Amino acid sequence: NYRFHRYKKIIAISKFIKNHLIKYYRVNPNDIDVIYHGVNIKEFKRNYKIRRRIRTELGISKNDFVLLFIGNEYERKGLPYLLDAMKKIKEDRIKLIIAGKDNSKQFRNISSEITDKRIIFVGHTDKIKEYFSASDLFVFPSSFDAFAMVITEATAAGLPVITSNTTG
Fold first, then answer.
1. Which of 20, 86, 129, 143 is deepest in the core (most CB within 10 A)?
2. Which residues make beta-bridge pairs with 94?
3. 3-state SS of the chain: helix, strand, coil percent to 5?
4. pLDDT per position as a tens digit, 135-157
C-alpha cells in the first residue's frame, strides 16, 4: 500500500500513471520515476512485399486507404467510436482492419451495417507486424489505457496515429 511508504522508488510506465498515483494515492511526485516501454524499431520496420501480400489476401487494392485498429476489450478501446465514424465515411476505398478479440458479437453487427467490404475483422493474430505494414494509419480511440503499447509499435512501424488523450 502506498500510504505506508513501503517503497524506495516507484516506477510508473507513463506520466498518466504517475499523475494517477499522485492524485489518488497522494504519493510524493519525487518518489515516482517514469520509464516508458520501448520497442525494437528494426522489428517493426514496414515491409512492402508483406504489404502487397496482406492486402491481396484481404481483398484490399493498392489504391485503398487502410485504417488499423488493434485491441481487446473493444468497448473500452474505443472501437464503437471508430465504427460510428466509418458509418459516416461514404468513401468505399477507405478500409478498416480490426485485429484483436472481444466476446461481443455487437461489433460484427455494427460493421455489417457499414458493409463487409470496408470492415475486415482478422481476430486474434500473430501477424500484427504484417498488418502494420499493410496499413496507412493507426487509430486507437481508447477511453482508458495505462500505456498503450500498440501506439508505440505503430509509431515504430512508421504509421501516423490517431488516439485519445487517455492512453497513457
1. 86
2. 65
3. 40, 20, 45
4. 999 999 998 888 889 999 999 99
Beta bridge partners of residue 98, listed in sequence order: 69, 121
The dihedral over CA atoms of 141, 145, 151, 153, expressed in degrees to the nearest 10, equals -140
Q: Are 13 and 38 in contact (CB under 8 A)?
A: no
- In the chain, what is the straight-line distance between the N-terminal and C-terminal CA atoms, in Å? 22
Q: What is the pTM of this model?
A: 0.84
The C-alpha cell of 49 is what? 512485399
The whole-angstrom separation of Cα 139 and Cα 143 is 13
